[in-house]
Design a protein that fits this description.
- This protein is of the alpha+beta class.
- Helices cover 43% and strands 12% of the residues.
- A four-stranded mixed sheet has the order 2-1-3-4.
- Helix 3 crosses helix 5 (121-132).
- The longest helix is centred in the middle third of the chain and has 32 residues, at 60-91.
- The two termini are 27 Å apart.
Length: 199
């Protein structure tokens, strides 16, 4: 079984589509995804422009909660929270109270308090750095990495998808992405301008 790592910022709608694709890949290929938090807020620190349109720093809030969930409750809890958050925010266009989401997935609602304090920001930064150092700061979310049978680690940004491939279509895309990303000297591949994500 191939170990796949995905670093995601939960606020990104395109990343949600990619995450759902990876969950489809788990069904049709011999892979297991480990989930990690990265942060667009950290990535864009110090920039003169504001590519995410977040002058108030709202993007810090979800990643603080998600990182603390990962630290204190592990992978299964992190994925459960991401599913609940993604289905509500990106799937239905709702903005539920974080406490309600935490309760719904069986986590202590006081974890929501982390959103409004910098007490755990070093955890956010460390998780973010582990993913971004695989590629550099010229990319965004998500970063995906896989270890091949020979022990070689291949990492890439994306793929950026506007819809979720299902079944064998998801598997074929996985095969293609890992083949291209693993080619010596590979740097970049782009498609058409993006459509609105349909997650």
């Amino acid at each position: 079984m191939a170990a796949v790592d995905c670093w995601f910022d939960p606020s990104c709608p395109y990343t949600w589509v990619t995450a759902r694709w990876l969950q489809e890949v788990e069904r049709v290929r011999d892979v297991q995804v480990r989930w990690h938090v990265m942060s667009l807020a950290v990535l864009n620190e110090g920039r003169e422009d504001d590519p995410e349109g977040d002058p108030e720093g709202w993007l810090w809030q979800p990643v603080r909660v998600f990182t603390l969930v990962q630290e204190e409750h592990g992978q299964a809890a992190l994925l459960a929270l991401y599913r609940a958050y993604g289905e509500a925010v990106h799937g239905r266009g709702e903005w539920p109270d974080t406490r309600d989401l935490l309760r719904a997935v069986g986590l202590p609602e006081q974890l929501a308090d982390a959103a409004h304090t910098s007490a755990h920001d070093e955890l956010v930064r460390a998780s973010h750095q582990a993913g971004i150092e695989l590629l550099g700061t010229h990319v965004g979310t998500p970063v995906v990495a896989v270890v091949s049978g020979t022990g070689t680690r291949t990492a890439w940004f994306g793929p950026v998808l506007s819809r979720v491939p299902a079944g064998e279509e998801a598997g074929r895309l996985w095969d293609g992405v890992t083949l291209v990303a693993g080619a010596a000297g590979f740097h970049e591949l782009k498609g058409r301008p993006p459509e609105a994500p349909r997650g």
